[in-house]
Amino acid sequence: xxxxxxxxxxxxxxxxxxxxxxxxxxxxxxxxxxxxxxxxxxxxxxxxxxxxxxxxxxxxxxxxxxxxxxxxxxxxxxxxxxxxxxxxxxxxxxxxxxxxxxxxxxxxxxxxxxxxxxxxxxxxxxxxxxxxxxxxxxxxxxxxxxxxxxxxxxxxxxxxxxxxxxxxxxxxxxxxxxxxxxxxxxxxxxxxxxxxxxxxxxxxxxxxxxxxxxxxxxxxxxxxxxxxxxxxxxxxxxxxxxxxxxxxxxxxxxxxxxxxxxxxxxxxxxxxxxxxxxxxxxxxxxxxxxxxxxxx
Length: 296
Known about the structure:
The longest helix has 29 residues, at 267-295. This protein is an alpha+beta fold and 296 residues long. It is built from nine helices and 13 strands. 35% of the residues are buried. A hairpin with a 6-residue loop joins strand 2 (27-33) and strand 3. The strands form two sheets. It has a seven-stranded mixed sheet with strand order 7-8-9-10-11-6-12, sandwiched between helices. It has helices at 8-16, 52-64, 105-110, 114-125, 137-150, 157-167, 212-226, 242-248, 267-295; strands at 20-24, 27-33, 40-45, 67-73, 86-87, 95-100, 129-133, 172-179, 182-192, 195-203, 231-233, 253-256, 261-264. It folds into two domains: 4-91 and 258-295, 3-Layer(aba) Sandwich (Aminopeptidase), CATH 3.40.630; 95-256, Aminopeptidase (3-Layer(aba) Sandwich), CATH 3.40.630.30.
């Protein structure tokens, strides 16, 4: 199943952002240089499941550029994985929610939790307005506020500006929720073939009582229907998280992917990389915890 992260536009964006991008047997691999070394580590995200022949081609390509391994997260719910792979550290969540946009509006509303329908009506009563924007300036402002408020690390402004340069108006679309002429939320929605996706969202902590994000999800779903899209991928599920509870109120299907696997190419350097990766995430976890404390 095709995905925006396998599109040419995504590859062009990542190349401008400093990555090495290669296509091998129809698969788009994004290579990141390992700091202070001549080596690269690759990611193959949201592709089909590669075959053993594909893996051999990946190894040939990797050896040309000093690639020590490739991390794969197929966009597949089931399938047979070839030999030679080991479990990797996940990049995206292994589950997501899919909202079936082929349903009539009345059926979509009926399948929601009553709280979701109520929150949509609250936003409509307060005259919250959802607008499609031609830039991401509002998103960047709100994203910065969201990071500081919630104490998490995310992509920087350069990342989003480069992404919008290559995907804006084609794959990426920006939406803003306004209340009394003040922006309360901004989302970036991907549209690719017959699906839409919700990969990025940011919000203000003002006027939470007007339920702007509930109306945002509903209005972007209706926008997707008008684009003849069949599925709204709400992009990510983590048990116990507030964003998961928010999404599941809208009656989506829970989708589980096959998981994350690595293809070691230079075993000694690959396992050293995995150890350093573990240390890095331990340090980042401690910093995130400290940042969260300071934010409150």
